[in-house]
Write a structure and sequence with these properties.
Blueprint: H1 4-14, E1 21-23, E2 25-26, H2 29-38, E3 43-45, H3 47-53, H4 64-75, E4 82-85, H5 94-106, E5 111-115, H6 127-144, E6 149-154, H7 156-159, H8 164-180, E7 185-188, H9 194-204, E8 209-211, H10 219-225, E9 229-231, H11 235-254, H12 258-261, H13 267-272
Helix pairs in contact: 2-4, 4-5, 5-6, 8-9
Length: 282
């Protein structure tokens, strides 16, 4: 199995490969293993998917100890690189965020996603504050000896006041500051139309991440626009739970089990998802 440093270097290289990195977001060990076994070269966590699966709303309600334990379980079962969505960093101060990042790295991660939206939903961190927090994230990676890949998300396009053009300008202003503070990749949450994506990519001149959302162009067009990373976000958990809703309705309304059984894995496959690929017990 590759070392954590090797995984981090691989993950960094994937952001500058010949094709955009399509990054699926898992919420537990079996979902992460399904993505790995399907052939994705790296996996990320979904904060919403993982937290809700443990009985917490998305944000920072999930206790740090439980969060880190969940990350450790996932990373311990993967051979591919794992990036972790740490929401806003589990702390307002740069020091607190750095300590959280250090623990996430110790849990096996080689990348982090951190956002500039305040956990209480009251707005965004000031740019200067977020820059300090990102610099601390970068320093924590350096101190660990792991070439951590930092994905800096801005929610300016979603929550900043003003029209769409002004919100895009603010997203560019913030992302540029985050890039200069040490982010390897920047993530304008909510930007989906081709024209805005092209403007953002041209302005940043660094790897840009977009999330799968209704209205997002297909992968080939995103590649032509210069996007380097496309993440699932919580959409895989939406899809899985949506399937369970449809299965439930079919059983209760029609008395049929077809949807429950069609395409399902079996008992042995389920058990194999609990152990690393290539393990003697796999």
């Amino acid at each position: 199995m590759a070392s954590q440093v090797e995984k981090a270097e691989t993950f960094r290289t994937l952001h500058r490969g010949p094709r955009p990195l399509v990054l699926p977001n898992a919420w537990d060990v079996p979902s992460a293993r399904v993505f790995e076994d399907a052939g994705f070269p790296a996996v990320a966590t979904s904060s919403a998917g993982m937290m809700v699966s443990h009985g917490h709303r998305d944000g920072e309600e999930m206790p740090r100890r439980d969060f880190l334990a969940a990350v450790g379980r996932i990373s311990g079962r993967l051979e591919v690189p794992l990036s972790v969505d740490i929401v806003a960093g589990y702390g307002r101060s740069a020091r607190t965020v750095a300590a959280m990042v250090d623990r996430v790295i110790r849990s096996g991660a080689v990348g982090v996603n951190i956002e500039d939206k305040l956990p209480d939903g009251s707005g965004l961190y000031r740019i200067a504050s977020q820059v300090r927090r990102l610099a601390a994230v970068r320093q924590a990676g350096t101190a660990s000896g792991i070439p951590l890949v930092v994905n800096a998300r801005t929610d300016a396009f979603r929550v900043d006041p003003g029209d769409e053009a002004s919100r895009l300008r603010e997203a560019i202003r913030r992302a540029s500051a985050y890039r200069d503070a040490g982010a390897d990749c920047v993530y304008p949450m909510g930007v989906t139309d081709a024209a805005s994506i092209a403007t953002f990519v041209d302005a940043l001149r660094c790897p840009v991440n977009v999330m799968v959302r209704p209205g997002l162009p297909p992968l080939a067009e995103l590649e032509s626009l210069g996007v380097r990373r496309v993440s699932f976000g919580p959409n895989a958990s939406y899809a899985a739970l949506g399937l369970l809703k449809r299965v439930s309705r079919e059983v209760l309304d029609r008395g049929s089990f077809d949807l429950l059984l069609d395409g399902a894995i079996n008992f042995d496959e389920l058990n194999r998802l609990a152990v690393p690929r290539g393990s003697p017990s796999a």
